C-alpha cells in the first residue's frame, strides 16, 4: 500500500491543537512538507518545532484568522504565487452550542464565513496547481452531525451540512483532474472543544464533568473517547496515493456511535 507523501506539501488548517495538530504530525511522518495555518503565531512556532523532519522536508506556517475571509484570501493568494499545495486539510473550530431556533442570524452568517466561505477561498487558490500536477487531496474535517444532527448544536449542524454538500459537489467537478474531495466526520474526540462542551453540559445540568463524560462514553460502542491521532490516521490515509479512487464520501471516525449508515 502506497502511503508515501514524500515531495507533497500539505496545508493544514487549525493545526495548533487537537485534530489539526495531530493531522499535521501524521502527514509529516508520511513524508509530506507541512504548512501550518492558524491565528496564533506563538502556538504555530511551537507546533512547527514538534513536526517530524526527515529527508528534504521543509515545514512552514501562515498566520490567518478565519473570521476575516478577505485577509485569508490575500494571505493564501500570496503564498500560492510561489508555492504549490498538494493536500488541503480544512479544519476549523465549531460554532458555539445552542438551539437552532434561538440562534441569531449573525451566528449563522459568521459560521458560514468561517467554514464554507474560507474553505472556498482556499480551494480556489490551490486547485489550479493541483490540476497542473494532476494530483490533489482536499479533506474536510467536519462532524458526524452531517449524518445525524446533534442536540444543542443547531448552528453547527446547519453549517456542517452545507460544507458536506459543497464538498460532494466539488468531488464531481474535480474528479477528472486527479483531485479527490472527502469528508472525515469525527465523533467524540478528546480535544479542547470537547472539554468545553462537557463543561458546558455539566454546568447546565448540574452534573460533574466526569459524569457527563461517562454518559457520552456510554453511547459509544467502542466504549471510549477517541484520541485526535486516531482521526488523523483516517485523514492521512485519504491524503495518500493509496486512496486515489475514494472520492466524494463521508467517513465517520466515531467508534460506531453514528446510528445511520
List strands and helices in order, with pairings:
Elements: E1 9-13, H1 18-29, E2 33-38, H2 41-50, E3 60-63, H3 69-82, E4 87-90, H4 105-133, E5 136-141, H5 154-174, E6 179-186, H6 192-205, H7 209-217, H8 228-239, E7 250-253
Parallel strand pairs: 1-2, 1-4, 2-3, 4-5, 5-6, 6-7
Would you write up a description of this structure?
The chain is α/β, with parallel strands linked by helices and 261 residues long. Helices cover 46% and strands 14% of the residues. The chain has 8 helices and 7 strands. Strands 3-2-1-4-5-6-7 form a 7-stranded parallel beta sheet, with helices on both faces. Helix 4 (105-133) links the parallel strand 4 (87-90) and strand 5 (136-141). The longest helix has 29 residues, at 105-133. It is globular, with a radius of gyration of 18 Å. It starts with 8 loop residues before the first strand and ends in an 8-residue tail after the last strand. The model has no long low-confidence stretch (mean pLDDT 95).
What's the overall geometry? globular
**Order of strands, widest sheet:** 3-2-1-4-5-6-7
How large a portion of the residues is in β-strands, by DSSP E?
Answer: 5-15%
Distance between the termini: 27 Å
Task: Spell the H/E element sequence.
Answer: EHEHEHEHEHEHHHE
Low-pLDDT windows of residues: none
Which sheet architecture does the biggest sheet show?
7 strands, parallel
How many helices does DSSP assign?
8
Helix content percent band: 40-55%
Mean pLDDT: 95
Radius of gyration: 18 Å
The tally of beta strands, per DSSP, is 7
| Class from secondary-structure proportions | alpha/beta
Amino acid at each position: 500500500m502506497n502511503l508515501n507523501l514524500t515531495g507533497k506539501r500539505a496545508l493544514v488548517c487549525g493545526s495548533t491543537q487537537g485534530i489539526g495538530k495531530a493531522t499535521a504530525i501524521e502527514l509529516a511522518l508520511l513524508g509530506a512538507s507541512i504548512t501550518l495555518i492558524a491565528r496564533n503565531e506563538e502556538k504555530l512556532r511551537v507546533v512547527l518545532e514538534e513536526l517530524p523532519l526527515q529527508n528534504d522536508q521543509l515545514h512552514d506556517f501562515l498566520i490567518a484568522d478565519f473570521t476575516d475571509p478577505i485577509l485569508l484570501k490575500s494571505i493564501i493568494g500570496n503564498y500560492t504565487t510561489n508555492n504549490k499545495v498538494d493536500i488541503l486539510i480544512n479544519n476549523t473550530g465549531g460554532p458555539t452550542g445552542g438551539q437552532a431556533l434561538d440562534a441569531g442570524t449573525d451566528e449563522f452568517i459568521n459560521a458560514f464565513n468561517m467554514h464554507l466561505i474560507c474553505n472556498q477561498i482556499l480551494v480556489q487558490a490551490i486547485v489550479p496547481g493541483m490540476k497542473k500536477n494532476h494530483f490533489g487531496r482536499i479533506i474536510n474535517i467536519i462532524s458526524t452531525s452531517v449524518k445525524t444532527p446533534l442536540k444543542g448544536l443547531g448552528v453547527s449542524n446547519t453549517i456542517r451540512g452545507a460544507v458536506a454538500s459543497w464538498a460532494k459537489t466539488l468531488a464531481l467537478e474535480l474528479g477528472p483532474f486527479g483531485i479527490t474531495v472527502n469528508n472525515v466526520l469525527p465523533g467524540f474526540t478528546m480535544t479542547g472543544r470537547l472539554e468545553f462542551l462537557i463543561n458546558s453540559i455539566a454546568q447546565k445540568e448540574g452534573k460533574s464533568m466526569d459524569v457527563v463524560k461517562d454518559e457520552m462514553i456510554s453511547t459509544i460502542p467502542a466504549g471510549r473517547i477517541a484520541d485526535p491521532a486516531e482521526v488523523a490516521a483516517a485523514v492521512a490515509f485519504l491524503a495518500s496515493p493509496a486512496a486515489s479512487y475514494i472520492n466524494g464520501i463521508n467517513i465517520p471516525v466515531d467508534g460506531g456511535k453514528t446510528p445511520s449508515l
